[in-house]
Amino acid sequence: MGTENELDVEGQTEPPIRGLTRSASVSSSIPPSGSPTLAGTIVDSITDDPASGPVPSLNPESAHVLPVPAVCALLSTDLENGLATVEAASRLQHHGANKVEGAKGLSLWTILLRQVSNSLTLVLLITTVLSFAINDYIEGGVIIAVILFNIIVGFFQDYRAEKTIQALYALSAPTCKALRAGKVETIRAEDLVPGDIVRLGVGDVVPADLRLAHSINLSTDEALLTGESVPVSKHAEIILKARDVPLGDRTNMVYSASTITRGRGTGIVVATGMSTEVGKIAELLRSGRRGATDTQDQKGLRRLVSRVQNGFRVVLGLDGTPLQVSLSKFALLLFALAITLAVIVFSVSRWRVTNEVLIYGICVAVAVIPESLIAVLTIATALGTRAMARGNVIIRRLAALEAVGGVTNICSDKTGTLTQGKMVAKRVWLADGTEVSVQGTTHPFHPASGTVRVNDTEFQFPATDSVEPNFDEKKTSPLLRDFLETIALCNNAGVTSSPNASSTTGEASTSYTAMGEPTEIALQVFAMRFGLGKPALLASGAHRLLSEFPFDSSCKRMTVVYADGDNGAHAHAKGALEALLPLMDLDDDQKVHIVAKAESLAAEGLRVLCVARKPVEAATYAPDSTKAASLAIESDAAKMPLRATAESRLTFVGLAGLYDPPRVESAAAIRKCRDAGITVHMLTGDHVKTATAIATEIGILAPSGDGSNGGSHTIMVASEFDTLSDAQIDAMQNLPLVLARCSPTTKVRMVEAMHRRKAFCVMTGDGVNDSPALKKSDVGIAMGLNGSDVAKEAADMVLTDDNFASIVTAIEEGRRLFDNIQKFLLHLLVSNIAQVILLLIGLAFKDPNGVSVFPLSPLEILWANLVTSSFLALGLGLEDAQPDVMQRPPHDLSVGIFTKELIIDKFIYGAAMGALCLAAFSSVAYSVPDGLGLGCNEEFHASCTVSFRARATTFATLTFLLLITAWEAKHFTRSLFAMHPEKYSGPLSVFRTVWQNRFLFGAVSAGFVIAFPVIYLPVVNRIVFKHDAISWEWGVVMGCTVVYTAIVEAWKAVKRRFGLGARVLVGGEV
């Protein structure tokens, strides 16, 4: 591999999760360099210019199965000298710049079109045209204002959501060190070409996809690309046998956008720009959301027809969230109904369509359209975003807020979302059989967080802020002190404390921060729990560093030698079990027993670390004689004798099992999802055993053996899932609950499989690798703290605390919004149905000339729909969540917002309201023999007194009944007089019920008060509203109000008695 003259980079061990097993897909032997054409290798000879000759290349997917000489041969490059300058320029011209292409251009007009691409808006536009056609400029102007309000709010909400691809630019490394013509040059990363030789060091961002040629103690952070929770050790000498090895397991490759966390290395560029793994993700994002590429494989007329069909679906709003689709279909239905009603009016007049008949027909048609629905929906969802922000969820698209309430499945990442994203030493097993366990850790860096049990005894924490050791061997095991000293001294991590100004006592009095490798931090914190952290040991003066042999990827262990005062010195070692076990003074039976215990810990999903030590002669490792070893500046040959001596015939001390602990809230959140009928899936880049252990601990998987996990495919590795066809996936009884070693395409296929099952899914993620699935899912949720910019821009929601529990909060808020949308839909539609009944039957009210007299004037209809009903509906949109909101299954997506209960209720209440309004008009119109008068639809004159008073009575009745409906709609089954028995009881509980929602109470009060000036102001009543002041008619209004309340309460009682539409809580309470 050549000779390295630079300093060795100190690093820490990253032991495998398995015990001594070795992947069958990895070979440590390098095939002969004379056979570069291996299976899976693709060699292209492309000539753009005959003078330039063929451009060497290979399939990047094959690089990890080839030895370094073969890669060099295929790319015609030299490890010692790199590419010639002329050759690099030629390849740059052929391959293009090493940068990710931006998204397809998106104009502001496209975003604007989205806001009007729903049927309800189109129907309102048609209504506006009709209003202007009959010279009703007030109604037309108000509807235009409603439409503009909705467009403005939606436009600014969606604008930033379409900037997804641009965030990928930030991931590109601006410069890098490349070997060109025998010299190391700092060049722009975008000038790299396949075949370039790149030098990597700690902190560097990998500028392209590289096949490693040399590596010394190299590790990379690939969390944003693969989801791997800890840095991955890289080994240039390893050659993989299988081409389809997941990205996270390709240990001889480093990928663009990952970061070097330890060591150094040299790599050969095998892919640049859009050919890199990040570029492939960008290409997936460029293809857009689900359905964007459905017509790609079609040709000719069929493709044109498909595009036209898709265009109509978009314009009519039939491609979106369930609520958007339901409301668009509903609007089309209303439009058809409006036309039907107009036809009925014209037919009654025997198609003698005079100006009066035309106006009346349009009024009847307009009455069926809930003009304020779109505005109320927009305002309610916008206000819902404030509530979500308080729950640590930022809404990037308003439609996602209601969509998340219908979720049936959640696909969640593990690291940092379900878990804390930090390593903790969970289990320790010592050579004498002592077992130590740590549970309930909420702050991984805090030594006093959680509980520690030594065998069956709970250990009492020492004063962790003190540097003095506080360890009693009589209460534990003598070997435990040796274990703690070794993991504390053979450790380069630092854990420091600082006073917390917010309190002065208890656990919260001190906050802890840590620097170093995650595994070493976990071990240092574990030692500090017993008061034997490295600072405490060194402060006593009894320990002095003599020599250190850092971790190296070739030996997978680290050893230090410390003088122990007058007691000589000890060598302390830790590392992978397979690296230390051959060096221990143990017989075969003892080794078998240790291996079995290590496999047992690994089966729990723990990363197993071996700890050993032995006494040594201090003089052998005195600094003056081992300067080369301690400073690590001479060759490996010079250091090997001392290291071999220190690491020979070691005494086994124990095993440590480390893991990334779940968040405290995760288990409760998973349980809440299960009660709500939501299935949670874990899709992670981690090892399958780690994923299984965490999934079992937090409740995604049931404890093994109870048979409740649902089939043999509950836990799968992504490589196995990816080999299945869509038909095979669809044939599964249930989709996997745990998918390990996931790639971006795996997550996308999982989402597509859910869509084929008619599931409505949420996808969470933080990395670049999650972006395509976030874009493809029904609702994408990104992490705000540790998420990449690409993931945030691709998502519909962003969690500001990266906490899975916040997703449950979002779902609860979404369900609350869904319930409230049903409530204000009920209110608005009851009003519309009542008006349609009133106006249609009102055709029978005719003046002496046979001309129908309007029971309501056009402006009264508009006032009821846009003023009275709008604020009442908005108040219903602000209702608190029902007690059982997370104790019932998700609503049926095939039914949508218009459930059977909602439809029946709106017709019963609407019919009752319409009938009572007719009764109110009739009781006044025919109470005197004067008749309805002539021309009373246009203006007031002496003969119109009865008509105008009857119209005012009907308007007042409609207004008061709408006010009562607003309070009754707070719950579909419970009585207004006993709506919250768990909170309020007694005859006065109704007042507490109506006072609970202050906005709704204010809207009802305002609606009641404002009805009087509308009726009594002289100019306003006769000229604007076409009605007149009333007196004794108030008795009719109050009588209709009492009767309507009785009808509603009676129907609710029937529903409670026969269980019609009742929602049963977990405990069975209705």
UniProtKB/TrEMBL annotation:
UniProt-listed Enzyme Commission number(s): 7.2.2.3
PROSITE patterns referenced in this protein's UniProt entry, alphabetically: ATPASE_E1_E2
GO cellular component assignments: plasma membrane
Compositional bias ranges of the Low complexity kind: 23-36
TM region(s), chain numbering: 116-134, 140-156, 330-351, 357-380, 824-845, 861-878, 907-928, 948-967, 999-1019, 1031-1051
Matching SMART domains: Cation_ATPase_N
Domain Cation-transporting P-type ATPase N-terminal: 62-136
Membrane topology: Multi-pass membrane protein
Compositionally biased residues, Acidic residues: 1-11
Region (Disordered): 1-58
GO biological process per UniProt: calcium ion transport; export from cell; potassium ion transport
Keyword Transport: yes
Compartment annotation: Cell membrane
Cofactors demanded by this protein: Mg(2+)
Catalytically driven reaction(s): Na(+)(in) + ATP + H2O = Na(+)(out) + ADP + phosphate + H(+); K(+)(in) + ATP + H2O = K(+)(out) + ADP + phosphate + H(+)
GO molecular function terms attached to this record: ATP binding; ATP hydrolysis activity; manganese ion transmembrane transporter activity; metal ion binding; P-type sodium transporter activity
Pfam families: Cation_ATPase (PF13246), Cation_ATPase_C (PF00689), Cation_ATPase_N (PF00690), E1-E2_ATPase (PF00122), Hydrolase_3 (PF08282)
Keywords attached to this entry: ATP-binding, Cell membrane, Ion transport, Magnesium, Membrane, Metal-binding, Nucleotide-binding, Potassium, Potassium transport, Sodium, Sodium transport, Translocase, Transmembrane, Transmembrane helix, Transport
Recorded family membership: Belongs to the cation transport ATPase (P-type) (TC 3.A.3) family. Type IID subfamily.
Listed PANTHER family: CALCIUM-TRANSPORTING ATPASE
Name the UniProt record assigns to this protein: Sodium/potassium exporting P-type ATPase 1
Origin species: Cercophora newfieldiana
